[in-house]
UniProtKB/TrEMBL annotation:
A Pfam family annotated for this UniProt entry: Glycoamylase
Keywords assigned by UniProt, alphabetized: Signal
Domain of life: Bacteria
Stretches of the chain forming a coiled coil according to its record: none
InterPro entries tied to this protein: Cu-Rt/internalin_Ig-like, Glycoamylase-like_cons_dom, SbsA_Ig
Residue span(s) of domain SbsA Ig-like: 61-132
Leader sequence segment: 1-19
Organism for this UniProt entry: Pedobacter punctiformis
Name of protein: Ig-like domain-containing protein
Domain spans labelled Glycoamylase-like: 326-538
Length: 555
């Protein structure tokens, strides 16, 4: 009993001690706590905007006011200014306002760069107190508005963009197969769909005099010869191939077989080449024969999955239909149904288009966004590649069917995307009528299909530039901004880099086949209609599209 009473007595004394102080006192006198002070005001160029500031000049004035006068001797060791990579930037620091305010002025910051200004708790007051908590400011400098390249006529600028972008497919094409590499870092991986875009890019290159007709023919024949022996799955090519061996490289765990959508991009490019190389000599005749054999071997109707009235994206010899992804509109896959309906050997009937692609009319939208009515698709239209990939060959001008006017659709989709950036509802730094374009691209630490409903502040040049046929004025504004104002931040060896974010001061150094291809092809369609005219001239395409219910002056 005595031990129990002793225990409760000790517990009682412990509780009382806790009530008198933050912690139970050890034997001996209580140690006084360290006093501190705090900051009370903050201005960058006489404006308060929290702890992040955009669009700053290269010599901003930062004023931070504290609750106590500052000890000047502690300034140099406790204030740092670095860029995002940790490199130090020079600055001066002085005191004013009875030494309560620290004035920090960088010597000269670089444009379009993020800097971090840090004030550590070691900054002392005149009475020796420490700062209560550290301070970190994000300082993002503005774009230098000077031109980075000499001004040239608009027509010359378009040619320059096409010529530089053409190098991705010509100079960087895989040495064995000639096919397009997936991206500038993908080594031996080549892409079937991107190679279809590349074939069209080469025809544009011949037309612009970047290469000769003979050089283009030789390269495309090299690609076709490789494709004749590459892996196929009921006639369809996989998304990725080994550029040396032609063996499938899985795009994902179960995606190691046929990819019908990528195959349709490739077939559209090959049919366009077949129409271009229409000479009677042996080389051009052989190319046409080889392309016909490849196209006619694609078993489009097999991909109806057990004869259903919908096309399916994937089939694998190991996983069968496990991917289970029906090809439904509205998106980039209109060309898949067109190529399937146009096949002389394995065509699909109109009901597959109506039921599978059009979902019996469910692809219709009809709502108005930013004052523009959108005939088809998702809210605000989705990423812009929806209006690019299929229309590298399909000419939307004057094209109609039971569901839409496609000239109206593509223009409306693009203008909604443009007006979204111009309106900038998320207040992202850098968006404007000159800086716009949301589509699938690289983003910091990944890849995403950017759109008004999935906006991560990343602009992709391919979005605006591949829209030249639809919005020539707005696209030219964007082109001039990307080229003249952003300069080498966005312009490189193979044309424009994939994407950038002015908000995050992030600039990709990547180039992708599926983004570079539409730039050169759609600029050519805007300038001459070349690829549209070739593709739409193919007799199978005319017959197939008419069979699906399309009407056009070009059919």
């Amino acid at each position: 009993m005595t031990k129990i009473l002793q225990y409760f007595l000790i517990l009682f004394l412990f509780v009382v001690a806790c009530k008198k102080g933050d912690t139970p006192s050890a034997v001996g006198p209580e140690t006084p706590s360290q006093t501190s002070y705090s900051f009370t005001d903050l201005k960058v160029n006489d404006t308060y905007n929290g702890f992040t500031y955009y669009g700053l000049n290269n010599i901003p004035v930062i004023k931070i006011t504290f609750s106590s006068p500052i000890n000047a001797s502690s300034l140099s060791e406790n204030i740092t200014l670095t860029d995002a990579s940790g490199n130090s930037a020079a600055f001066t620091s002085t005191l004013e306002n009875n030494d309560n305010t620290v004035v920090i002025i960088p010597t000269s910051l670089q444009p379009i760069t993020k800097y971090i200004l840090t004030i550590n708790t070691g900054l002392l007051s005149k009475t020796g107190d420490k700062l209560q908590s550290s301070i970190a400011l994000n300082l993002i400098t503005a774009i230098d508005d000077t031109d980075k390249f000499a001004r040239i006529p608009d027509d010359e600028l378009l040619t320059l963009v096409q010529k530089q972008t053409f190098k991705y497919f010509w100079d960087f094409g895989h040495p064995t197969s000639g096919l397009a590499r997936e991206r500038n870092t993908s080594g031996n991986i080549v892409t079937s769909g991107g190679s279809g875009f590349g074939v069209m890019a080469m025809i544009a290159g011949i037309n612009r005099g970047f290469i000769s007709r003979t050089e283009g023919l030789t390269r495309i024949q090299k690609m076709v010869t490789f494709l004749k022996t590459a892996d196929r799955f009921h006639g369809a090519y996989p998304h990725w191939l080994d550029g040396s061996t032609g063996k499938v490289i899985p795009f994902s765990a179960k995606d190691n077989g046929g990819d019908l959508v990528e195959t349709s991009f490739l077939m559209a490019g090959l049919i366009t080449a077949r129409q271009y190389f229409n000479g009677t000599d042996a080389s051009e005749t052989a190319l046409r024969t080889d392309i016909n054999a490849i196209y006619n071997t694609v078993e489009w109707n097999w991909y109806r999955k057990d004869n259903s009235n919908t096309l399916y994206w994937h089939w694998s010899p190991n996983y069968n239909w496990d991917m289970n992804l029906p090809v439904k509109g509205w998106n980039e896959c209109l060309i898949t149904y067109v190529m399937a309906a146009s096949s002389p050997t394995y065509a699909i009937p109109k009901i597959v288009y109506d039921n599978g692609w059009a979902q019996n009319g469910a692809i219709k939208n009809g709502n108005t966004y930013y004052g523009i009515q959108l005939p088809l698709g998702t809210t605000n239209g989705g990423p812009l590649f929806f209006s690019h990939y299929s229309f590298l060959g399909i000419n939307p001008k004057g094209l109609t069917d039971a569901y839409a006017n496609y000239e109206t659709q593509t223009k409306a989709h693009t203008l909604i995307n443009y007006n979204y950036a111009k309106t900038n509802p998320l207040n992202y730094y850098g968006y404007s009528e000159n800086c716009w374009g949301l589509t699938a691209s690289d983003v910091p630490n990944g890849y995403t299909a950017s759109a008004p409903g999935n906006d991560v502040s990343v602009i992709a040049p391919t979005a605006a530039l591949s829209s030249f046929p639809y919005t020539p004025t707005e696209s030219m504004q964007a082109l001039k901004y990307f080229y003249y104002k952003l300069g080498n931040k966005t312009w490189g060896e193979y044309g424009f880099y994939d994407a950038f974010s002015l908000k995050d001061q992030w600039f990709a150094n990547s180039t992708l086949a599926i983004d570079q291809g539409p730039i050169i092809v759609m600029i050519e369609n805007y300038r001459s209609g070349l690829l549209w005219n070739l593709f739409m001239s193919a007799p199978e395409i005319k017959s197939g599209m008419k069979g699906l219910g399309f009407n056009s002056p070009n059919l």
